[in-house]
Design a protein that fits this description.
The complex is a heterodimer. Helices cover 79% and strands 0% of the residues of chain A. By secondary structure, chain A is mainly alpha-helical. Chain B has one domain (4-85): Helix Hairpins, CATH 1.10.287.3510. Chain B contains three helices and no strands. Chain B has helices at 4-23, 27-52, 55-85. Chain B is elongated. Classes of the chains: A mainly alpha, B mainly alpha. Chains A and B meet through helix 1, helix 2, helix 3, helix 4 and helix 7 of A and helix 1, helix 2 and helix 3 of B.
Chain lengths: 185, 98
């Protein structure tokens, strides 16, 4: 059942991402990107990352895309003419994307068992639950503390310093954006 | 556990983002394609977090923070360029081309 739902969300994500990069009007491209992000949020729920799904909708589909739409409408780009590059760039794009796609499509065949046997270098005998002890531990953590608590504990203990550095990054970004967008500093 | 299809989907989305960056000239759509690539990477992190525990999901938060900062600063730069050039077409923005 969840596999079927996954493939529905995946089809929506790929379809709307394709429309996003082919859409001439920047406003429609942004709205198709919002659709991609919503279906990715659905996929996150299927992958047992409910909190990330909520943040995806709030931050990405909400805040970041509103910023994009705001700038598009502020600059009045709603009726842009065609902006695709020439045929040489098209050929280069097809070659690069084709090679990249073929290379990355091998990921499709990965199962937890195969990944475990490749990492532990024990062909066909590796047990995913023993190689990936972290996943089982995380499930116990979720059962004990709930979905948010299982993320909050390592975020504010193990990853506390990166978390604080992130706040400095955001402060720098706020100051930088204001300075860049101001007419006269 | 859905692992392989999720990794494959993220590969497709990343390739679509690269295709958009290579095909378009509109600076704002280019930024949106970069966001698409970041989302594909986030999907990889979440898919592997099923096996490795919550660290992958925490990394997704950091990626989202960097993406939000990048979008804010990048759009401010586009705004400043638009004020000078009256365009966001990258073909007409060639100040650094010698």
């Amino acid at each position: 059942m969840s596999t079927v739902v996954f493939y529905v969300f995946a089809a929506v994500a790929v379809g709307s991402a394709t429309l996003c990069i082919l859409q001439r009007n920047p406003v429609s491209a942004a709205l198709w990107l919002v659709a991609t992000m919503f279906s990715l949020a659905g996929i996150y729920v299927l992958l047992d990352a409910q909190f990330v799904a909520a943040i995806q909708v709030l931050v990405y589909a909400g805040a970041v895309m509103v910023l994009f739409l705001f700038v598009i409408m502020l600059l009045n780009l709603g009726h842009a003419s065609t902006d695709f590059r020439g045929p040489s760039s098209l050929a280069a794009a097809i070659v690069i994307v084709g090679l990249l796609g073929i290379e990355l499509a091998a990921l499709w065949r990965y199962t937890p068992r195969r990944l475990a046997s490749e990492i532990s270098q024990a062909p066909a005998f590796a047990d995913p639950t023993s190689v990936f002890a972290g996943g089982a531990l995380a499930q116990q953590e979720v059962a004990a503390r709930g979905v948010v608590g299982a993320i909050a504990a390592p975020l504010f203990q193990v990853y506390l310093v990166p978390f604080e550095i992130t706040s400095i990054l955001l402060l720098a970004a706020i100051v930088g954006a204001v300075v860049l967008a101001k007419r006269k500093v | 556990m859905i692992l392989g299809p999720a990794l494959g989907l993220s590969a497709i989305l990343f390739s679509l983002g690269v295709a958009g960056v290579l095909l378009r000239r509109n600076a704002i759509i280019l930024f949106m394609c970069v966001e698409l690539m970041l989302n594909a990477v986030n999907l990889t992190f979440v898919a592997l977090a099923q096996l490795y525990g919550a660290s992958g999901q925490i990394m997704v938060f950091f990626v989202m923070t960097v993406a939000a900062a990048e979008a804010a600063v990048g759009l401010a730069i586009i705004l400043a360029i638009f004020r000078h050039k009256q365009t966001v077409d990258l073909q007409n923005i060639n100040l650094l081309r010698g």
